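Incident log, structure service

09:12 report received: a user says their structure output differs between two submissions of the same chain.
09:20 pulled the input from the user's history:
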Amino acid sequence: MERIAPKTVGADLLDGVPRQRSVLPAPPPARPLAVPRVRPWLLLPTPARTPFTLGYAALLAVTSLLAALAPPSLVYALYQGSSTDVAHLVRSPAVVLLTSALWIAGGLLSPYALAFVLVLTALERRIGGARAACVFLAGHVLATLATEVPVGLAVLAGHLPGTSLHRLDYGISFGVAASTGALAGLLRPWLRWPLLAGTAALLLNDLLAYTDPMTNWGHLIALTIGVSTWPVIRRWAAAETP
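09:34 re-ran on a clean worker, output below:
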């Protein structure tokens, strides 16, 4: 009986036909570089994210309009009643330390008005409203005491006249300077150091002009107070980050 050999596997394939290669998946298309979105409205306070800054700014706008529209005699009386001079600090320290922060020296056109909105908005977004208020008040109160207490001591020692006890002193500039120093500690280095250097240069320039050296020293002290809060506010910012 004739035996038939089994066919060899692949023997019926045509010679010279190359083996088909498996098709590899096509590489995904290159993703375009992400361009950071510019959102300028984040520089301004909002009711949901920055209620402290928004409410405080609205209050400052009201008092600034009052100062611009009211009779000069009334405005001067309000300023004098809110002044954090030595005489008022001795009689009612808590009252004048709070009421003095209700005015903007120079009104709404003052550079400190714009700095207040931008700096406090950025600071509150990072650490929350209550903590931003603490930083602002720390700069306002401590810098005020650091400049007025030496005046009182100098009057007692006879180095300054008694009229120095009634020096007109009010405004938000100490709080803004402290908040600027604190905010710098939460920014990236490429923005932190230019902000600090620029702010310090402006304050030193005012001091060298010698128009109001006590207030100018207060601004530098307040900026230093803000910088000294970096360890604390960095922990606060980390706690605020979801």
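09:41 both user submissions now match this output. Likely a transient worker issue. Closing.
09:42 reviewer note: DSSP finds ten helices and no strands in the chain. The mean pLDDT is 88.
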